Fold this sequence. Notes:
alpha+beta; four-stranded antiparallel β-sheet; Immunoglobulin-like; 2 helices
Amino acid sequence: MKKLALAAALLAALPAWADRDIIIETALTGFEEVPSVSTRARGEFFLRIDGSGQYVNYRLSYSNLQGQVRQAHIHFAQTAVNGPIVIWLCGTSFNPGPEGTQPCPQSGTVSGIITSSNVLAAPATQLLAAGELSEMIAAMRAGAAYVNVHSDLSPGGEIRGQIGRQ
């Protein structure tokens, strides 16, 4: 009888657990880039996924890039593979990003809120349509997305971190 009461209590609590925010932190280095980059630059990426799945708060901090910063984004791909840009975090006059993309500092922090309107479509073979925030959240939680900061010396990315990988 006690086991049944405990099971009932756990099942009743499941909806409350489902609504909790999820926090993911990621370190960025040149060694994570594909191919790897030898750089003194470092970064940190912090995500707070809203428990309802309607938005994601983020903070990207980076410093010591050897090249001039050009852009930063979230890409859809697993570890050691380059993938398409699906969410812009910041841009510059050289690579401005979609309308409303905030400017990248040479060194510092950018932060904001990601909603479904920020999610771009991946190539058709990846089956990720524009606006599919829930799919990108699932990809980030599964380690199938990465964040990187691009520079003029490393146009493919100077530092990178796989999101959700522990």
